[in-house]
Each structure stands twice: as C-alpha cells, then as structure tokens.
Amino acid sequence: MISSTAQRRDGFDQWIHQINQICGAFNAQTLGTDFSGRIREYQSGALKLSFVDACQARLYRTPTEIAAGEGGKYFAVFQLEGSAGMAQGDNKALLSAGDITLIDASRPSDFTYHENSRQLSLILPTHLVEKTLRFNQVKCGHRIPASSPMAMLSHHLILDATRQKNLSLSESEATLEAIVSLLRPAISHSEDCSDLHERIFQKTLACIDEHIRCEELCPEWLAREVGMSVRGLYRIFAKKGLVVARYIKNRRLDLCAESLRQSGAEQKLSVLGYSWGFSDSSHFSTAFKSRFGIAPGEYRRQHA
Fold first, then answer.
1. What pLDDT shows up at residue 7?
2. Does the pLDDT value for residue 64 go beyond 70?
3. The whole model's pTM is what?
4. Ordered domains of the chain (ranges, CATH)
5. Phi, psi of 63, deg, nearest 5
6. Which has the minimum average pLDDT: 66-70, 144-148, 279-283?
7. Residue 193 buriedness (CB in 10 A; 0-12 / 13-18 / 19+)
C-alpha cells in the first residue's frame, strides 16, 4: 500500500514537473499536508497559456531558475478562483478572483497558495509589450483590481478566446495585442511628457519611424537629425533600458514581420528585407529568427 503522504509527494512532484515543462523553470515547496495541484496547457497560434490550480503550495523563481529558463517574456496572471499571494521585487499583493498582475520572467518572483486557487497564466512576448508601451517603464508585481474596466474586459477576452475552436494565427495575435493594449494603462509607468528628456525621446522614436526604411539610419545620423550628441542619445535610450542600434534593428524586424503577415508569397524575402533597411539578406534572416524564433519564410507560411 502506498501511504497518503507518498501519494501527495508524487502528486507534488508531477505538478512542478509539468509546470517546468509548460511555463519554464520554477521551484516549489508545499506549505502544509493538504497540497493539491494540477496544470492544463492551452495553445492556439500566438496564444500560449496555462490554467494552474494549487492549494498549500509556494511557486517561485530565483536567479538559478531564471538562468535555466527562457527569457524575453512576461506572464500576465489572471486570478480566476480563490486567492494567492504574489511578490516581485519590492512589490507584494494579495490577488482575489478577477484580479490581474504582470510578472517579468527575467526577474525573481514568488507566489503562495494557502487555499484552493486557480489562475490563468498568459505568456506575453517582451517585444509585444515594449512595442505597445512605446518603451515606457513596465510596472510588474502590481495588483490590477477586478473592479477596473480593463481587468473585466481582459478577463472576458482571454477566457472567450480559449473557447474558440478555429482561431487563426492572425486572430490569436490580434487577441494578444488587444489584451496588452487593454492592460497598458495599468502596466505602463509613463514619464511626464513635460520632462525635456521624455519629449526628446518621443521625438527620436518618431524620427526613427519616419526614416526606418533608410539604410543610412544609425545612431550617428539620428543624433544629427534630432540635434544632439551621440553620447546624449545613448544616455536617453539607456534611461529606458535600451540600446539605440538594437532598438532600430528590432523596430525594423517588427515592421518586417507585419509586412510578412500582409504580403503575398510572390515577394522575395531579400527584397522585403532591403525595403526595411536590411542590405544583407543573410543578416536579415538571422536577425529575424533570433527575434521571432523562426525564419522569415516559415513565418510568412504560417500566416498565409
């Protein structure tokens, strides 16, 4: 006969193993003798999420787990039932049914489940969050209350999306973008637009978009165009946690991806890359795969 303690231990080990497979590297421990937990994965196109049930458990990520997992993403955590404690950095909150929080997967985080809890954990790619927030500071570890319109709308949207059987890739991407847009007021720490540096930063972003197709667009050219030193340009971007050249490259890649979703298969990839400022087709293909995980040709086929 297997003891009840051994059964609970086996159930706990299976639970954390599944979480590591579905969500990435986490550590966990039980908080009592009545642990229970399960996880169910849902994936449809760009939507990657999981339903996590837990009772009397702690789920956390330390620098060790972060080093072993994938970067480049956030977790939007929707509290569906029960309650859970959450902490990231100096921020702590108690989530009740209907609440939402955003967690940065590249930083330590900690969840505690003392009673029966059910959460929906949605993966948000970093590049999507950055693009939507226009590189304002991202607020993580804060409770978005269930009573707020953005929380209610986001809950309805993501749950309705999981009930759709024939969601196309473009529809799933649009759903993901809509959720980030709905949450933007709560997760964006906007700078005061009266601040001189912020005005210059926004002016610089507009200048990049205006000249994004120009091959000569680079930090030195950009600094001359907006009327400042290259060192000053680097400082303004560094304040946002950005590198100028990398931002320009990623902005081009994001626009290339948008073009691939809309263009026909007859356009040559080298021509498309060149039209967005990439003079080397090999460099374009390598950079695209690094940002989106697949080659541009495969990306276009998926969106055909």
1. 61
2. yes
3. 0.71
4. 4-189 (2.60.120.10), 196-302 (1.10.10.60)
5. -55, -30
6. 66-70
7. exposed
The mean predicted confidence, pLDDT, of the chain is: 88
pLDDT-based confidence at residue 95 (cuts at 50, 70, 90): very high
Comparing 62-71, 81-90, 163-172, 200-209, the range with the smallest average pLDDT is 62-71
HEC per residue, the chain = CCCHHHHHHHHHHHHHHHHHHHCCCCEEEECCCCCEEEEEEEEECCEEEEEEEEECEEEEECHHHHHHCCCCEEEEEEEEECEEEEEECCEEEEEECCCEEEEECCCCEEEEECCCEEEEEEEEEHHHHHHHHCCCEECCCCCECCCCHHHHHHHHHHHHHHCCCCCCHHHHHHHHHHHHHHHHHHHEECCCCCCHHHHHHHHHHHHHHHCCCCCCCCHHHHHHHHCCCHHHHHHHHHHCCCCHHHHHHHHHHHHHHHHHHHCCCCCCHHHHHHHCCCCCHHHHHHHHHHHHCCCHHHHHHHCC
Question: Which amino acid makes up residue 225?
Answer: E
Instruction: Give the model's confidence band at 304: pLDDT under 50 very low, under 70 low, under 90 confident, else very high.
Output: low
Classify the C-alpha dihedral 50-54-57-58 as positive or negative.
Answer: positive
The single-letter code of the amino acid at 175 is T
| CB of 28 closer than 8 Å to CB of 16 | yes
Kindly provide the b/e burial profile for residues 65-88, where b requires at least 16 CB atoms within 10 angstroms of the residue's own CB. Answer: bbeebeeebbbbbbbbebbbebbb
